[in-house]
């Protein structure tokens, strides 16, 4: 893209991240988050949801939770997709109490599961 003087946008980065996550290359996908910000392209809610989904599918709930914290720092508010993804990840790990607690928080934030 740089050869053709084409600058990647948030959609380009999201597409790359999604593909990397689907190929179980989560670390590379997360690294793109830093790269895109260095390049002046700011992540969207979709960007975070893609990475959170990839991390949850890998079972890395700790990193997924840190990414949610990062979302708030960037001014992104979790939506139904974010909550549902996290709840699903917690259920897969057998953490039903935490999943139920997150469901309650989801409802308090007026998100429909």
From TrEMBL:
<feature type="repeat" description="PPR">
    <location>
        <begin position="44"/>
        <end position="78"/>
    </location>
</feature>
<dbReference type="InterPro" id="IPR011990">
    <property type="entry name" value="TPR-like_helical_dom_sf"/>
</dbReference>
<dbReference type="Pfam" id="PF13041">
    <property type="entry name" value="PPR_2"/>
</dbReference>
<feature type="repeat" description="PPR">
    <location>
        <begin position="79"/>
        <end position="113"/>
    </location>
</feature>
<protein>
    <submittedName>
        <fullName>Pentatricopeptide repeat-containing protein</fullName>
    </submittedName>
</protein>
<feature type="repeat" description="PPR">
    <location>
        <begin position="9"/>
        <end position="43"/>
    </location>
</feature>
<dbReference type="InterPro" id="IPR002885">
    <property type="entry name" value="PPR_rpt"/>
</dbReference>
<comment type="similarity">
    <text>Belongs to the PPR family. P subfamily.</text>
</comment>
<dbReference type="Pfam" id="PF12854">
    <property type="entry name" value="PPR_1"/>
</dbReference>
<dbReference type="InterPro" id="IPR050872">
    <property type="entry name" value="PPR_P_subfamily"/>
</dbReference>
<keyword id="KW-0677">Repeat</keyword>
């Amino acid at each position: 893209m740089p050869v053709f003087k084409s600058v990647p946008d948030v959609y380009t980065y999201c597409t790359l991240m999604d593909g990397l996550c689907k190929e179980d290359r989560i670390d590379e996908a997360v690294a793109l988050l830093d790269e895109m910000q260095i390049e002046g392209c700011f992540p969207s809610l979709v960007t975070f949801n893609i990475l959170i989904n990839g991390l949850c599918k890998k079972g890395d709930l700790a990193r997924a939770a840190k990414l949610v914290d990062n979302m708030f720092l960037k001014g992104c508010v979790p939506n139904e997709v974010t909550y549902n993804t996290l709840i699903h990840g917690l259920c897969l790990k057998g953490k039903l109490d935490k999943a139920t607690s997150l469901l309650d928080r989801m409802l308090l934030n007026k998100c429909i599961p």
